[in-house]
Amino acid sequence: MSRQLVALGLALASLGLPSPADARTQATSAPGLEELTFDEAISRAISRNPSVAEAAQAILRADAFLGQAKAVFLPYAYGSVGTTVLDTAVAFNDSIVQPRTQTAFSATASYSVLAPARWAAKNQAADRVQTARVAAEETRRQVGVAAAQAYLAVVLAQRQLEVTVRNRDTARALEDYARTRYEAGQGSRLNHVRSVQQLASSEALIQGAELALRRTQEALGVAVFADSPVDARGEPALPPAILPPNDAWLAQRADVRLFTSELDAAERVVSDSWKSWLPTGTASFTPRYVTPAGLFEPSKRWRALFQLEIPLFDGTLGADKRVRIAERETARLRLDARRNEARSELRAAQEAVRRNEQIVTSIRQAAESAGEALRITEIAYRAGATTNIEVVQAQQAARNAEIEAALAEDRLRQARLDLLVALGQFP
Questions:
Q1: In this structure, what is the dihedral angle of CA atoms 352, 357, 363, 364, given to the nearest 10 degrees?
Q2: Which 8-state DSSP code applies to residue 242?
Q3: pTM for the full predicted model
Q4: In 3D, which of 307, 230, 277 has the Cα closest to residue 41?
Q5: Local structure of residue 17 (DSSP, 8 states)
Q6: Spatial CA neighbour of 233 closest among 25, 48, 43
Q7: Is the pLDDT of residue 24 over 60?
Q8: 60 alpha-carbon distance from chain centroid
Q9: Is residue 70 within 8 Å of 64, Cβ to Cβ?
Q10: CATH number of 2-73+116-278+318-422
Q11: At a CB cut-off of 8 Å and minimum separation 6, what does 298 contact?
Q12: Who's near 177: CB < 8 A, 6+ residues apart?
C-alpha cells in the first residue's frame, strides 16, 4: 500500500502542468497590445468621446443664448451717416432752404426701461445653461458605464482563455503520457487516441477563446477611442457602494438631476407666461448734426423719446401658454418615471449583488472540488488504476466548473458596477 502511495505521489509530481498564474500570463499576453487599467480606460473614454465634446459645445451654445438674453440689461447704440444730393438747391426769396448736397450725422442710444418678458427670458436662458451642464454629466456617465462594461468583458474573456489554456496543457501532458506508455507497450491505442482527441478539442477551444478575447479587446479599443485593440490590465477594484438611508441618493444620479432640471425650467416658463401681457417701455436719445444747415433745419439738434407699448390683444399668447403647460406636465411625467426606474434599478442591483455573492461562493467551492477530482483522476490514471475516459470526464467537469466560476465572478463584478451606477456613485 505504501508503494502505491509513493507511485501516486511521483506521478503527481511528474505532471508538470503550469500554475494558474503562468497560464493566465500565457493566455492574455499579446505583444505590442496597449494595456489599460480600469481607471485609465474610464478616464480616456470620457476625455476622448465625441459625445462628451458635443455636450461641452451644447453648454457653450446655451451660455451664448444666455449672453443674448442678458443684452436686455445693456443699452443699445448705433450711428448713421447719410448724404442727400438734389438736382438743384431749393431756394426761397434768395435764401437756401435745402442745400443741393447735405450730409447728416446722427447717433441713437436706447434702453429698455421696462421689459418683463425679456427679463424673464434671461432667467429661462440661465435654466437652459444649467440643464446643458447636467446633460453633459449624464453623457459622461453613459460613456463611463459603456467603457466599464467593455473592460469587464475583456476581463471575462481573459479568464475564459486562461481556463482553456490550462485544460489544453493538461490534455497535452496526458497525451504525452499516453503516447509514451503506448510506445513502450504498456498502454492501449484506445487510450492514446482518446488523449489525442481531447488535445485537439482543447486546441479548438483555445482558438475560439482567443477570438472572443480579441473581439472584446476591439470593443474596448472603440470605447476608449484608440486606433487599435486595447487589453485590460488586471481586474477592477470597484469601491464598495455606500447605501443611503433615504432617497437622497436620487440627487446623485445625473439622469434624475437632468429630468429635474428640465422640469424646473419648464415650470419657470409657465410661471413667467403672464409677463407677456405686461407693457414694455423704451427710452432713446438721438443727437443729429447736419452740414450745411438748411433754413428750416438747424445744423445741430437732438431728440429724446420714451415709448410705452401695452398689449391689448394677441391671440397667440393663450395658445403659447397651453403649449408650455403641456411641456411642463410632460417633463413632470418623465421625472416621475425616471425616479421609479431608478428605485427599481437600485433594488434589483442590491438583490443581484447579494445573490451573486452567494453564487460565487458556491461555484468556487464546486470548482475547487472539480479541480481536486481532476488531480486525483490524473494520478490514478498515471498509476494505471483507471482509464483516460475518467480523465476526460474529469477534465470536462473541471473546465465547466472553472468557466462557471469565471462567469459568476463576472456577474458579481457587473452587479457591483450596476449598484454603483444605480446609486449615482459611478463614474
A1: 150
A2: -
A3: 0.79
A4: 230
A5: P
A6: 25
A7: no
A8: 20
A9: no
A10: 1.20.1600.10
A11: 290
A12: 195, 382
Q: What is the pLDDT of residues 79-97, one digit of tens each?
A: 999 998 988 888 877 777 7
Spatial neighbors of 279 by CB under 8 A, at least 6 apart, are 114, 308, 309, 310, 311
| CB distance 190 to 197 below 8 Å | no
Cβ(279)–Cβ(114) below 8 Å: yes
> Which tens digits make up the pLDDT trace of 272-312?
999 999 999 999 999 999 988 877 778 899 999 999 999 88
- For 313, other C-beta atoms within 10 Å of its C-beta total 5
The answer to whether 74 and 122 are in contact (CB under 8 A) is no
Helix (H, G, I), strand (E, B) or coil at 335: helix
pLDDT in tens, 200-242: 988 999 999 999 999 999 999 999 999 999 999 988 988 888 8
- Of 234, 217, 38, 156, the closest CA to residue 405 belongs to 156
Lowest mean pLDDT among 8-17, 105-114, 143-152, 342-351: 8-17
Q: Decide: 159 and 409 in contact? Cβ < 8 Å.
A: yes
What letter would DSSP give residue 229? -
Cβ proximity of 55 and 136 under 8 Å: yes
Neighbours of 199 (CB within 10 A): 21
**More confidently predicted of 4 and 332:** 332
CA distance 217 to 223: 10
Helix (H) or strand (E) holding 287: strand 280-291
C-beta of residue 113 within 8 angstroms of C-beta of residue 84: no
Residue 58: pLDDT band with limits 50, 70, 90? very high
Task: Evaluate if residue 28 carries a pLDDT over 70.
Answer: no
CB 177 within 8 A of CB 188: no
CA 41, CA 32: separation in Å to the nearest integer? 17
Residues in CB range of 166: below 8 A, 6 or more apart: 17, 18, 20, 23, 402
Among the listed residues 265, 240, 261, the one whose alpha carbon sits nearest the alpha carbon of residue 353: 240
**Band of residue 31 on the pLDDT scale cut at 50, 70, 90:** low
Q: Would you state the cell numbers that stand for residue 102, as one nine-digit string?
A: 447735405
Give the start-to-end residue ranges of the domains of the chain: 2-73+116-278+318-422
